[in-house]
Amino acid sequence: FDVENEVSFRSFLIEAIGKLDLFGLLRAMGLGRGRGLVLFLAVSLGLELCLGCTTGVIGRLATTDGVTYVFGTSDTENGDFRAALVHGKKHKAGSTRPIYPLKQVFPHLVSEDRSFTWSKENLGDLPQKELWKPTEPIFSIPQVDETYSLIETGGGYGIVNEFGVGIGESTCGARFVQKPVFDGGSASFEIGELSQIALERTKTARDAVKLMGSLAEEHGYYGAFYNDPALQHSEAGEALTIADGREAWIFHITPDDTGKSAVWCAQRVPDDSFSIVANRFVIREVVEDSEDFLYSSNIFEVARRQGLWRKGQKLDFLKVYGPLNDDLIKYSTDRVWRAAQLWNPSRGETRENRQNYPTNFHADRQISLEDINALLRDHYEGSEIDLTKGIESGPFGDPDRYDKFPVDGLTNGDLGEHSFLRAISMFRSIYYYIQRSDASLPKEVNGRILIGFHEPSESIAVPVYVCSKTLPKQVVAGSMFTYDDTSLYWAATLLGNWVHKAYVHIHPFLMPLIRTFETNMYNEMDKVEEEAAALVKAGKKDEAIKLLEEKQLEWSSDTREFLRTTFYQIVSKFHDGLVYGNPAGESVTVHSLFYPKEWLETIGFFSPRFRVVQNSKIRSLGGSNGSLNANPSTGLSLITVVSMICTVVLALKLFY
How far out from the chain centre does Cα 36 lie? Predict the structure, then answer.
């Protein structure tokens, strides 16, 4: 086994497992007790590499419309990007709630009981459809009398419920690692199941925090890649942003040191502030006996037991429970710095102060939906680390920086700790979301999220509502296995990939089109929601729900069509290194993009070695083997002379 090919080997095994009925295979081999092994393989190999997700939360007094916002991106290579609507239910006494193992690649879950998205029917026409068997739970907990409706994703995370409680997620490094119950450990919960149960059972952000914390303390918590020495600590912790229209919170969780419980802490975000989490814990001093802090019963004892804290000292959650090393600090904190630069410029925060960023930043001005979209689409444009500038961006200012990987004879040792910067908007985003919670609205209207797919800088987030009977097919369909023309993910991916071929030329052309479409849709959304709220207050709830259902279908369909037709428009205008104009004129105009002077100078274009390209008239037509070459004394090649003779002969035949 070649360690350098670990990732490709992992991908091979993921695909192989997806095509096999492993439970049936083990039974056929007489290994009926192999369930734990299969769950271990399905989980450890069925994980997306989550490192990179960004999330943020804004207090209600820091926004233009007086509401809370939770927003974020899910950044991975091979995740399940589908959204799922889970309907609330009333349950019989003695019922249990199954807890499923962590799996974030397609299909995240195969179940006929939870949501249409996870059903066999929604696996599409993939040839391996019949080989994916229903997901088996690892254990269960007692069910409550009634659960609430919510929307969740193929990443495994709940993101909003019918009461407008919203949750965002970002994986963080942590000191302690813990194994799950199906692989010789004692932990039963990962963050996805915790977030789902919180939305199923709570109406406020504070209660969601308390429920997730208590379940993890009682049953144990495990992170992703717990068995991978290279990744287990960087994926061991989790941070959630949680808001409900009144309060906004940051929630951190990590395994404890016994392998049987969890350590967690939550801090309230002031109403006039915002917080950003980018794969690194942000809660610092834990304040005892404060209404603005909630934490596990063992938070001080575990730290004391491990020699990380003494009574009478302040407990810094990041320093005590964060990762053993801080190798990814720049990868994480640049995103936090950028939000502070845009929304709290008076603070004058610098990148050099990254070790001391606060948990929360005061908003210098009230933040709008447009501001949030702009942050999600940001590549540090105009800043000291503008990713559209420099030789790294190529000749056309591409802000994407691909993840390092040992190719072309390189090894991980060669690559070492070298890496590119990354922004909030990036090429491997599979979905992003903006959740607004307004406590003054009826729940039919308040339970809404804007969800977009692929890289935010070339995509549009559409409104979907928890009160609906179904979600639009554009947000529940598709996979990484094959292109799906119904999927918003693939429409955005198609457009985004073409835009990045010549980013500095195409993106400025695209964005006015996106902003116009987006503004019109969101303006209509506001009017529709106002009408729906009036219907609910008038006792016409069913009419309100029908209105929202019809409009979300229309918006998703229109957005997909816009992305697709805009792609066609851009392809016809920008292709083959040329820009075509005057499409309604008698004839098109055309000019070459060529390359910017700075880039040409950087690659040495104007040096003597490039003369053969600079002047095509002296280009060799062959080698020294008797092929045609330029005549240095006359400047005429033999082929030119032959062409002239043929022309003369042809003219003589025509006229004589």
Answer: 30
Q: Is the pLDDT of residue 637 over 60?
A: no
Helix H or strand E encompassing 288:
none
Rounded Cα distance, 140 and 96, in Å = 6
Quote the CA–CA distance of 647 and 641 in Å, as a whole number. Answer: 10
What is the per-residue pLDDT across 22-75, written as a single tens digit (0 to 9) for each? 334 333 333 334 444 444 444 444 444 445 799 999 999 999 999 999 999 999
What CA–CA distance (Å, rounded) separates 298 from 321? 12
Q: Which residue has the tokens 């095994």?
A: 13
The CA–CA distances, whole Å, from 458 to 63, 487, 488, 554, 637 equal: 24, 15, 12, 20, 50
Query: Has residue 8 got a pLDDT over 60?
Result: no
With a cut of 70, say whether residue 655 has pLDDT above it.
no
Q: Which of 255, 245, 111, 247 is nearest to 174 (CA)?
A: 255
- DSSP secondary structure string, 401-459? -PPP---TT--HHHHTT------SS-TTEEEEEEEEE-TTS-HHHHSEEEEEES-GGG-
The first and second tokens of residue 108, run together, are: 């995240």
Q: Are 447 and 163 in contact (CB under 8 A)?
A: yes
Average pLDDT, the chain: 88
pTM for the model: 0.87
CA distance 490 to 474: 10
Q: Angle of helix 488-499 relative to helix 503-537, nearest 10 degrees?
A: 150
Is the omega angle on the peptide bond into residue 512 within 30 degrees of 0, that is, cis? Answer: no
Residue 239 has pLDDT above 90, yes or no: yes
Note the helical H segments in 574-630.
Answer: 597-602, 611-614
Say if strands 83-86 and 139-142 run parallel, antiparallel, or are unpaired.
unpaired
Comparing 650 with 285, the larger pLDDT belongs to 285
Write the DSSP assignment of 477-534 as a string of letters: ---SSS--TT-HHHHHHHHHHHHGGGHHHHHHHHHHHHHHHHHHHHHHHHHHHHHHHH
In which band, very low, low, confident or very high, does the pLDDT at 609 lie, cut at 50, 70 and 90?
confident
CA–CA distance, 501 with 508 (Å, rounded to integer): 13
The amino acid at residue 48 is E
Sign of CA dihedral 594, 505, 331, 259: negative
Q: Would you say 52 and 428 are in contact if contact means Cβ atoms under 8 Å apart?
A: yes
The pLDDT tens digits for 119-160 are 999 998 899 999 999 999 999 999 999 999 999 999 999 999
Which residues does 124 contact at the CB level (< 8 Å), separation at least 6? 477, 478, 479, 484
Q: How far is CA 612 from the centre of its chain?
A: 45
For residue 538 the two structure tokens come to 């008038």
Tell me the β-bridge partners of 55.
72, 277
